[in-house]
Amino acid sequence: MKSSIAVLITCYNRKEKTMQCLRALFDQNGLGNEFNIEVFLVDDGCKDGTVEVIMQDFPQVTIIQGNGNLYWNRGMYLSWKIAVKTKDYDYYLLLNDDTFLFKNALLSSLELEYSTSIIVGTTHSAINQIPTYGGTSAKTKSIIIPNGLFQKCDLINGNFLLVPKLVFEKIGMLDPTFHHALGDYDYYYRGKKMGFEFYVAPNYVGICEDHISEFKGHVPKWRSSSIPLITRLKLLYQPQSGCVPNQFFIYKQRHFGLLSGIYHYILLHIRCFFPGLWKVKSLFKLS
How far is Cα of residue 113 from the mean position of the Cα atoms in its chain? Predict the structure, then answer.
């Protein structure tokens, strides 16, 4: 019996990458025979012609209009919300629009014995083949490298996340409390508290470049001493900072306790007000 999969994507002004993502998705081995997919894509205000090209090349994609301020987590939440109202799917696949799947990515991830567990796909860079996103090991504090078997992981990235129906019915969707970041981390901890396991797919699922590494050696603007304080504060509270204080507080308080939430809320502001303290790693640590 074929499995039905709702593929959830959010995009914003990355036409070439979004199209490459969709081409790889619709070129999956097993598509039509082993499983069927329906794509729900949120257009969060694209102005580069992304939507027009999708409508021309992939008219089967359901395009959902965002408000231009959804970013990743709230965009994915919206696509998930629409998918749930459309049909009762066997799986929900969270997929980044800059993730280009290998042909067997979905087929190798759909294993019946893991139908009550969440599957995390690992990606690597096309430049140096170094793993970029996937499931992380608490022991090594690094991304787990696929070894041909399903391996349990201790934290996840949402670039490729396959959620079975039975799991969704218990955990639900991403929490729209989080604007851009933290939604996938929060989903992991919510799932673990309910007794679900997260497994890394047996093989690499595709290519996705590491955006964090692109900024290594560069201080985020919200903690740059060369930028006025009032501007730094505004930048800290922007969704793309990755650590909006009130949302970071909710995340930490929810999964690590009230003291952790308060500590990190204060710490973020201290680092914004006094950028030089960022270097005191032994005293100030975000993890």
Answer: 24
Which pLDDT tens digit goes with each residue over 3-34? 999 999 999 999 999 999 999 999 999 999 99
Please state, in angstroms and as integers, the Cα–Cα distance from residue 86 to each residue in 33, 38, 77, following that order: 22, 10, 14
Other beta carbons within 10 angstroms of residue 167's beta carbon come to: 21
| Residue 3: count of CB within 10 angstroms of its CB | 18
**Strands 62-65 and 35-43: what pairing?**
parallel
* 207, amino acid identity: I
Task: Report the chain's mean pLDDT, rounded to a whole number.
Answer: 93
Q: What is the DSSP string of 56-107?
A: HH-TTSEEEE--S--HHHHHHHHHHHHHHHH---SEEEEE-TT-EE-TTHHH
User: Which two tokens mark 188?
Assistant: 């992991």
Nearest residue to 109 via CA among 128, 93, 96: 93
Where in the chain do CATH 3.90.550.60 domains reside? 3-207
Q: Which CATH number fits domain 3-207: 3.40.50.720, 3.90.550.60, 3.30.70.2210, 3.30.360.10?
A: 3.90.550.60
Backbone angles phi, psi at 151, to 5 degrees: -120, 135
Residue 179's pLDDT band, with cuts at 50, 70 and 90, is: very high
Is 0.70 surpassed by the pTM of this model?
yes
Q: What are phi and psi of 3, to 5 degrees?
A: -95, 140
Which pLDDT band holds residue 253 (cuts at 50, 70, 90)?
very high
The CA-atom distances, in angstroms, between 8 and each of 22, 96, 128, 275 are 11, 8, 28, 38
* Residues 211-229 pLDDT 10s: 764 445 567 899 999 999 9
Query: Which secondary-structure segment (H or E) carries 22?
Result: helix 15-25
